[in-house]
């Protein structure tokens, strides 16, 4: 995985701030390929509770992680009980790694 221990701690901390104490976050996509270089960061934020404003939560998480990582592009996918599950969610659950 092409994230440092400090970056992982930071992402976890931001997930807790944005989505609360019961949230989890996993990385998926190109960042899992140790032989790759650069690229964006694909995250799935998992909430055990329904999310009232999913677009705002995703935007906050993406912006805060991007800012903390000096402008690196961050794509955030959200999984919550009240949201529709799409095929990309299946990919993230199957191939992603919990941070």
Rg calculated over all Cα atoms: 13 Å
Query: How does the major sheet shape up?
Result: 4 strands, mixed
CATH-assigned fold name? Beta Polymerase, domain 2
- The helix-strand sequence is HEEHEHE
What sort of overall outline do the alpha carbons produce when their principal axes are compared?
Answer: globular
Helix content: 25-40%
Q: In DSSP terms, counting alpha (H) and pi (I) runs of 4 or more, how many helices?
A: 3
Strand adjacency order, main sheet: 3-2-1-4
CATH architecture: 2-Layer Sandwich
Alpha-beta content class: alpha+beta
CATH class: Alpha Beta
Structure description:
The chain has 99 residues and is of the alpha+beta class. The protein has a single domain, classed as 2-Layer Sandwich (Beta Polymerase, domain 2), CATH 3.30.460. It has 3 helices and 4 strands. The chain has helices at residues 5-19, 54-68, 87-95, and strands at 24-28, 41-46, 74-79, 97-98. Strands 3-2-1-4 form a 4-stranded mixed β-sheet, sandwiched between helices. Strand 2, helix 2 (54-68) and strand 3 form a beta-alpha-beta unit.
SSE blueprint and pairings:
Blueprint: H1 5-19, E1 24-28, E2 41-46, H2 54-68, E3 74-79, H3 87-95, E4 97-98
Parallel strand pairs: 2-3
Antiparallel strand pairs: 1-2, 1-4
Short description:
With 99 residues, the protein is of the alpha+beta class.
Keywords:
single chain; 99 residues; alpha+beta; Beta Polymerase, domain 2; 4-stranded mixed beta sheet; 3 helices
């Amino acid at each position: 995985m092409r994230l440092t221990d400090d970056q992982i701690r930071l992402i976890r901390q931001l997930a807790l701030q944005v989505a609360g104490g019961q949230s989890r976050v996993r990385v998926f996509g190109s960042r899992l390929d140790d032989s790759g270089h650069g690229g964006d960061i694909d995250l799935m934020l998992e909430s055990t509770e329904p999310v009232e404003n999913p677009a705002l939560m995703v935007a906050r998480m993406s912006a805060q992680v991007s800012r903390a990582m000096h402008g690196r592009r961050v794509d955030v996918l959200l999984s919550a009980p009240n949201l529709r599950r799409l095929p990309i969610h299946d990919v993230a659950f199957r191939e992603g790694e919990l941070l």
